[in-house]
Fold this protein.
Amino acid sequence: MTNTHQLHQTDHILQTKNVSVYYGNFLAIKGVYLDIPRNQVTAFIGPSGCGKSTLLRCYNRLNDLISSFKLEGDISYHGSSLYSSEVDPVEVRRRIGMVFQKPNPFPKSIYDNIAYGARINGYKGDMDELVEQSLRQAALWDEVKDKLRQSGLALSGGQQQRLCIARTIAIQPEVVLMDEPCSALDPISTLKIEELIHQLKEKYTIVIVTHNMQQASRVADMTAFFNVKTNEDGTRQGYLGECDRTEVIFQNPREQATQEYVSGRFG
């Protein structure tokens, strides 16, 4: 897992090679080939049930926590397999962080929310500095600097989500996964998170699942459109329709289904 060389700016940090995901006998998503470019925002879009969140959770091995989960194919991170038996999933989750749909602050102070992950990872630096820097990066410092000892649960929904982003980046990951991070937020909070995503990609690689087409067109450099087909037995199976630069997906996609989805004709 150690990265001995500095990857070139345009390199792909995650490579998905012929990945199919099963839950028991149910095939959730089939045969995905997809490269995630470094220091860019990649959006996953598509109708419900197409496997967007399933694939996202494969990147930091969160699906491992589901007993019926099985992955075929491979995902590599800096060229090394994420699913090799030598790889520690906890270390994967330190390098590839996750922000969930609903803000989930710990029932602790704002300060301790940020410091928690660094402490359990044995951080030896100046904790006050790390907390401030993480909150600044999440565009939250000015709003909370005088109430760091208050509970994170006392913040508004939008502030809680930025706190969760600060908590994720405090452990200094390289990749940040976001699973519909704005779906529970009001429009003003959503715009703040979108502005934040623009700033964060200077330091991090971001993969975001979103149902909001305008959001994908605003924040993403690359967009992957996933679709779902119904099998003869009535089961639904997700697949990757196409992936390209965001302006291509929204203005001149190759597939008719992509055109219909981004123009709001189905989904």
Residues 1-10 have pLDDT under 50 and may be disordered.
